Each structure stands twice: as C-alpha cells, then as structure tokens.
C-alpha cells in the first residue's frame, strides 16, 4: 500500500456536497472550472500545499485500487443487466472537479449527462465500458461496489486484503473531505431539465 503523507487537519465537514450532481450546460461546466481554478489561485501557499498533498494522496490511492477494481469489473460488468453507467444519478460532484482541477492532468469536457433523459453516461462505450481512466472518473464510479462484486470480494479475497481495501477507501474519504473543506461557494443558475 502506498503510504500517504500524514496530514493533520481538522474540519467539521462530514459529507461531500452534491449541488453539482446534475446535468450542466457547457457554459455552466466552464464556469465551475473557472471558479475552482480562480479559488485555488487565490489561496495562501500553506492552503495550496494542503490541497496538493491531499490531491496527490487521492491520486495514489485511486491508482492503488485500479487493478483490484479492474479485476472486479472484468468478472461482473460484461454479464451485468443493470449497468452502473446507466444509473441516472451518476455525476461528477464538486470534490471530483476540485480534485481534477488541483491535480491538473485532465478536466472532463462535460458532466456525465447533458440531460436527465440521456440514457447512458457520456463516457460509456458499448463493449468497452468507461473511456476514462479510473483516476478521472466521478469517484462514485470507484466507490460503488455492486452485490456481485461484494460476493467476489468475500469469496476470493482473504480478510487481510479486504481490510487493506477498506483502509484505502477510508484514506480516500479522509483526503476528499479535506478537499471539500476548501471548496468555494459555487453559484450557478440552473435551467430546469425535463426528462421528455
């Protein structure tokens, strides 16, 4: 397991915000990116250091989960009749976008859906799955483990390996809550999305 730097940080935030977990227009999407980048630019050097360290920790931990998640997906997704990429509530949230802005390698061109009536995630490809590396997907795409995947974990993974994976998820949550504690207010005027 990759050791994350120990960051002692007190925050009252216990849950990530979900205001952006909905379809966004291109203009709204770009505005979010600008607000986040501007906010990071105006932070004190010590705050930026905390953000960068947390973002790098999240990236290392996600990369550490990658082989494990790919194994689970390989053994469950091709036969799945209830594809996660079809779920109507899978979106990037504020922390996902803040993380990607800080990390700096990639910022998705759009939200996962342009409307609530869109059937599949914009990044899903038939017979392939997600076109995005796990690092750049909404975190819910890594965090969510379906019942079939849980059964595989319980059957094939020794308790020590399961505890290690649980610890990785706990570390990711810790660092994402640190990122969430630095989020600026994001005020957008959302149009109403119709499902027809």
Task: Give an overview of the whole structure.
It is a single chain. With 196 residues, the protein is mainly α. It has one domain (26-181). 49% of the residues lie in helices and 2% in strands. It contains six helices and two strands. The protein has helices at 26-42, 45-76, 94-103, 140-143, 147-156, 159-181; strands at residues 124-125, 129-130. Strands 1-2 form a two-stranded antiparallel ribbon. Helix 2 (45-76) packs across helix 3 and helix 2 packs across helix 5. The longest helix has 32 residues, at 45-76. The chain starts with 25 loop residues before the first helix and ends in a 15-residue tail after the last helix. Mean pLDDT is 86; it is low at 1-9 and 190-196.
Layout of helices and strands:
Blueprint lengths: L25 H17 L2 H32 L17 H10 L20 E2 L3 E2 L9 H4 L3 H10 L2 H23 L15
Antiparallel strand pairs: 1-2
Helix pairs in contact: 1-3, 2-3, 2-5, 2-6, 3-6
Structural shape: globular
Structural class: mainly alpha
Strand order of the largest sheet: 1-2
Mean pLDDT: 86
Q: How many strand segments?
A: 2
Tally of separate domains: 1
Outline the low-pLDDT stretches: 1-9, 190-196
Profile the largest sheet. 2 strands, antiparallel
- DSSP strand (E) fraction? under 5%
Provide the succession of SSEs.
HHHEEHHH
In whole angstroms, how far apart are the ends? Answer: 47 Å
**Compute the gyration radius: what is it?**
17 Å
List the main descriptive attributes of the protein structure presented here.
mainly alpha, disordered N terminus, 196 residues
């Amino acid at each position: 397991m990759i050791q994350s730097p120990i960051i002692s940080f007190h925050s009252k935030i216990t849950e990530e915000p979900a205001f952006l977990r909905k379809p966004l227009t291109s203009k709204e999407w770009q505005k979010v990116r600008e607000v986040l980048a501007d906010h990071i630019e105006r932070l004190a050097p010590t705050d930026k250091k905390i953000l960068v360290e947390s973002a790098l920790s999240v990236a290392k931990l996600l990369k550490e989960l990658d082989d494990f998640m790919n194994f689970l997906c390989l053994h469950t997704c091709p036969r799945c009749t209830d594809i996660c990429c079809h779920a109507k509530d899978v979106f990037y949230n504020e922390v996902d976008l803040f993380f990607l802005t800080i990390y700096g390698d990639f910022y998705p061109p759009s939200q996962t859906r342009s409307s609530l009536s869109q059937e599949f995630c914009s990044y899903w490809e038939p017979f392939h799955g997600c076109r995005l590396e796990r690092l750049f997907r909404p975190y819910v795409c890594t965090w969510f483990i379906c019942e079939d995947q849980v059964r595989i974990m319980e059957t094939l993974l020794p308790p020590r390996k399961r505890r290690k994976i649980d610890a990785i998820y706990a570390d990711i949550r810790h660092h994402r809550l640190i990122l969430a504690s630095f989020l600026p207010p994001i005020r957008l005027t959302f149009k109403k999305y119709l499902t027809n």
